[in-house]
Amino acid sequence: MVDPTDEQLDTFIRARLDLIGVSLDDLPANDPNAPADQVRILAALRTFLRTVPPQISAFPMDVQVTLPVLYPAQSREWTKPERTSAATEPPDAR
Amino acid sequence: MSGTGELPGPSDRSLDRRGFLQRLALASATAGGMASLSATTAMAASPRPRPVVDLHVEQVSDRNVNPIDLTIAEAATRIRDGSLKPIELVESFLERVRSFDGTYQAWNTVLADRARQRALRLRTGPGRPVLTGIPIAVKDNFFTNGVRTTANSFIYQDFVPTFDATVVTRLLRSGGIVLGKTQMGPLATTRATTADGVITTVNAWTPGNPAVYPGGSSTGSATAVAGRMATVGIGTQTGGSITIPARVQGLTGLKPTMGRCSLFGVIPLSYTRDHPGPLARDIKDAAIVLQTMAGPDPRDLRTLGLPPVPDLVAAATPVRRAGRVICRWPTRMGIPADYLSGTGTEVDLRRAMVDAMANLDIDIVEVALPQEWSLLTGYAANSMRLPERSEQFLEYLRSDLKLFGVSLTTWMQGLFVGGDEYVRGQRAKLLLAELVLNRVFAECDVMLFEAADAFDIIGFPLVAFPIGLEQDDDVRAMLPVGALLGGQPYAEDRLCAVVAAYQAVTGHHLQRPPDPAASGALARTLRKPLRMSLEQAQATSA
Predict the structure, then answer these.
(1) In the predicted model, is pLDDT for residue B31 greater than 80?
(2) CB contact residues (below 8 A), chain A span 52-81, against chain B
(3) For residue B507, what pLDDT is reported?
(4) CA-closest candidate to residue A38, choices B121, B412, B36
(5) Helical residues (DSSP H) of B123-257, grouped into ranges
(6) Among B21, B274, B427, the residue to mutate for chain A (most A Cβ within 10 A)
(7) Within a domain: A36
(8) Do residue B433 and residue A56 have CB atoms under 8 angstroms apart?
(9) How large is the average pLDDT for residues B437-459?
């Protein structure tokens, strides 16, 4: 796997932000005394991009059994047998 | 057995673990997915909130006790019997706010006049609602009708809601008095700072030293309660923001299961992980407040179709058998393999806590966390919460990035999680929930943890409670040490029962920090303000 350069990632970051109407130019270019500036935000985003998407993409999971669920706690209640028995029993085709 | 008599079994007793995943898969495949399933089943089974009718107070507190030191149960009992007036309680706290909040900096807005008027107007006596006359510290991300609600953010600095959050409405209907709005991490991210990162609220145990971590982001509510400027507080937790301040400030903090409390009227951070809950002096108080706050709300679908709120107050009342305190229900407490390893005061306190639990007839079992644990709860998995904040604040990101002050980074990072990665993160979430249910809770009923991340991700309940004090030589002060206990979904009653038994035989929850010294307050005012860096804000963000 190729590790993009900082310049490539900065171009990607700015392009992605441009597409959705977010502008890093709202921030000072390089001001360590400001709450945030472009230099530090770009550095944080480069680190994030090099870390999080590759790790998440590498999660080993079985597509047959692990479905995407936003709310696991509620889902357990919403799918209790008394609520789902009719839906979980397929018709007998014999 | 004494102490409220027999209650039905805890809410985790009917858990059906093994079939969970299979049912979920089949139901989703055949019923068109979770959305349609939840919409059709949820509305039909909405239980009503359970009013608190009996505080199960074993003895009335000494009438010479300063009202600021009373728990809810104690104060409410005295208000009911007429020996304490709500206005006395309110004035006692307002006096402390005047004296000490220049040092603590726990409050954004103190509603002194409004609180006084309400205290004088409330009818008291037997049969009145449970929180009648109880002053409450409310985190500044809960909507309060006609009161500025800032979330310590530039975005909301002038926001005045025209209605109360559902949980605030419920606290008011139960007779509570909102004493004010408390400091918080900007948009509920870090320890309390101004929007541009100047540290505000301090740990009540080290009021002269703002460098000591007070927990985040419900810091203001925690310090208000620990500093005895309110009887109880409410906060929100997305990444440890109730349980961490509770642990480091000697409080009992209860993060309920996702869906127990409505999020309607709460400035959002994460759709899937925001949990309102109490920060209290003991588990009884936490149970009283949670029981008042909890229950279905038609304006928040996440609260519908869930088990009824159990009698948490009864569960939080200790029971005795032959004069000895025991846990209300037979309970197995899991401890991670390395929980008691190592040396030092904190480990000693943990060992003492575990020993005390064993003496309550709680079975202690070592439970190995699944080998996938670090992968499913680590930085990458935890980062799947970030697109949720970015999406709902996108118009402000487009408007001016400076609106996010020192907490900007995680909002920007959320824009760089791809759709496929977010979906995989949700699948990982279900896998984690399955592992917790089928492996961890196959061996125990409650589990001690080091950190809240896993249960914040999957929305399972947590309680933090004090287990002792530790001398910190660096800051030359005694600091609280807290434990963190997780339970099965909607089984907050089991957590309450365990902590109630523990607190009945220990006194750690009774420890109070010394008042700020005048010299400490002066030093604080003269010291150059501490500022949180962009990097610190990212690293500690909820």
Answers:
(1) no
(2) 52-53, 55-57, 59, 61, 64-81
(3) 97
(4) B412
(5) 166-173, 219-226, 243-249
(6) B427
(7) yes
(8) no
(9) 97
Residue A94 lies in a domain: no
CATH number of B62-310+450-539: 3.90.1300.10
Q: Which residues pair with residue B325 across a beta bridge?
A: B320
According to DSSP, the residues that pair with B253 across neighbouring strands are B279, B464
When pLDDT is cut at 50, 70 and 90, the band that residue B145 belongs to is very high
Q: How many C-beta atoms lie closer than 10 Å to residue B348's C-beta?
A: 15
Q: Is A83 contained in some domain?
A: yes
More confident residue, B124 or B63: B124
Confidence of residue B277 (pLDDT cuts 50, 70, 90): very high
- Asked if residue A93 belongs to a domain, the reply is no
Region A8-31: what's the mean pLDDT? 98
- Nearest residue to B147 (alpha-carbon basis) of B105, B185, B179, B195: B179
Q: Would you say how long chain A is, in residues?
A: 94
Asked if residue B495 lies in contact with residue B485, where contact means CB atoms within 8 angstroms, the answer is yes
Give the predicted TM-score (pTM) of the model: 0.91
Q: Could you report the predicted ipTM of this complex, rounded to two decimals?
A: 0.92
Q: Cβ A70–B28 below 8 Å, yes or no?
A: no
**C-beta of residue B215 within 8 angstroms of C-beta of residue B248:** yes
How many other CB atoms are found less than 10 A from the CB of residue B2? 12
Q: For residue A35, give its domain range.
A: 6-88
Give me the pLDDT at residue A85, please: 63
Find residue B449's DSSP bridge partners.
Answer: B484
Q: Which residues contact B473 (CB under 8 A, 6 or more apart)?
A: none
Find, among B17, B38, B37, B18, the residue nearest to B29 by Cα.
Answer: B37
Contact (CB<8Å) A52/B379: yes
Question: Is 80 exceeded by the pLDDT of residue B470?
Answer: yes
